[in-house]
Amino acid sequence: MIDTIDQVETPGLFFSNCVSGAGSYTTEALYFWQNQSMPGTIIKKLREQKMLKQETVAKAMGISQAAYSKIENNITELTVKHCRILSKIFEVNVYEHLPDDFEISRPVKAKTTEE
């Protein structure tokens, strides 16, 4: 079981693989993003840094402005699809925005390879 981000071999790949859908980190990236205490606060900050309106981001995500507002207000959890879209819009790696004391709250299965 992985208890902290420090135990992850390649933490920087989490969100990039979430974006591409490649690798074994997609689910882990989603858990990191969802379990962050205030992901909506981070998303709002990123949106404001890009000087984008909620309506603009919502349209790019294929959701209403009201639904997007619920994400920023931590009412609605993010999906993998949302992670992918937001990462492209904001051009970010989620790992860069996690707090230093962030911990995974549930076990994560590691991908195994057959030789």
TrEMBL record:
Pfam families: HTH_3
Domain HTH cro/C1-type positions: 43-97
PROSITE patterns listed in its UniProt record: HTH_CROC1
GO function term, MF aspect, one: DNA binding
Domain of life: Bacteria
SMART domains cross-referenced by the UniProt entry: HTH_XRE
Protein's name in the database: Helix-turn-helix domain-containing protein
